[in-house]
Amino acid sequence: MSTAHAAASPDSDAVQELESQFDATIARDQRIEPRDWMPEGYRKTLVRQIAQHAHSEIIGMQPEGEWITRAPSLRRKSILFAKVQDEAGHGLYLYSAAETLGIDRAELTQRLLEGRQKYSSIFNYPTPSFADVGVIGWFVDGAAICNQVPLCRSSYGPYARAMVRICKEESFHQRQGYELLLTMMRGTREQREMVQDAVDRWWWASLMMFGPPDDDSPNSAQSMAWKIKRHSNDELRQRFVDMTVPQAAKLGVTLPDPELRWNEERGHHDYGTPDYSELKRVISGDGPCNAERMERRRAAHEEGAWVREAASAHAAKQAARARAEAAA
Ligand SMILES: [Fe+2]
Ligand SMILES: [Fe+2]
């Protein structure tokens, strides 16, 4: 806390008191709720993180959504449908969590469309084969679980609570992906090759979902001090690698990293360094599908304008009716 206000005015005394209450709540591992005072930096960090998370859920519907009409069986189609629909739901819970911080969904969507807010780099990669649906479930939803399970204990109440249900659903997503791959691996040689090809294309991009390495992640320390984030990028990445290696062995695929091996001393797997310059390129807009994803998102937003207008007109009518009834 700042000691710069030597001649403290009553106002700054009040702010100091609020700050120390906030710090004490965080130190006791209790939750910050929307009614509580919070530092502006904490609020801004949460808005940025929750919005980025919400945008990722919504844009993340696209790469797999492309396969709904082409799923190979009714069973796969209904699973994929349910999964993609879950992601829409995740986006909605998260926009609602962000709204408790005093910013509405329309504004956040506007920021995304104007390129002022980001979404996860992983959704800028293409899905040329049906095996991609399986590998996204296994890797991408698996990485999401590693990232999000600790967020169930995040210091901001509405975010932490949204995350509980999201994580349960992500775990179904991961399993459906892995089960799809197990089925394909029991199929023809071509099917096994499709799985291996998809694994080769998604592995490094999935490792990069955890963000830049710790020594190049300037905002992480503050997020951890505020207990928004509970583990560093590299810790979570390690957790994902350790979880995935035995699953790959059981599936019968090779993870495309010659440096990958068990390190007895560390009790973890060693692994190679992802190409973080690619991550920077994709985040700054220059990935294989960035333009396509944003164009689709923009079109969906414009095509949905009539739904938003109809919903507001309906809400206004309901409110007018309620007022008239109250006055009668
Ligand atoms: Fe999700
Ligand atoms: Fe998911």
Automatic annotation (TrEMBL):
Pfam family membership, one: PaaA_PaaC
Enzyme Commission number: 1.14.13.149
InterPro entries hit by this protein: Aromatic_CoA_ox/epox, Ferritin-like, Ferritin-like_SF, PaaA, PaaA_PaaC
Keywords: Oxidoreductase
Alphabetical list of Gene3D superfamilies matching this protein: 1.20.1260.10
EC top class named in words: oxidoreductase
Source organism, top-level taxon: Bacteria
GO MF annotation, one: phenylacetyl-CoA 1,2-epoxidase activity
Keyword Oxidoreductase: yes
Name of the protein this chain belongs to: Ring-1,2-phenylacetyl-CoA epoxidase subunit PaaA
Source organism: Streptomyces pseudovenezuelae
Taxonomic lineage: Bacteria, Bacillati, Actinomycetota, Actinomycetes, Kitasatosporales
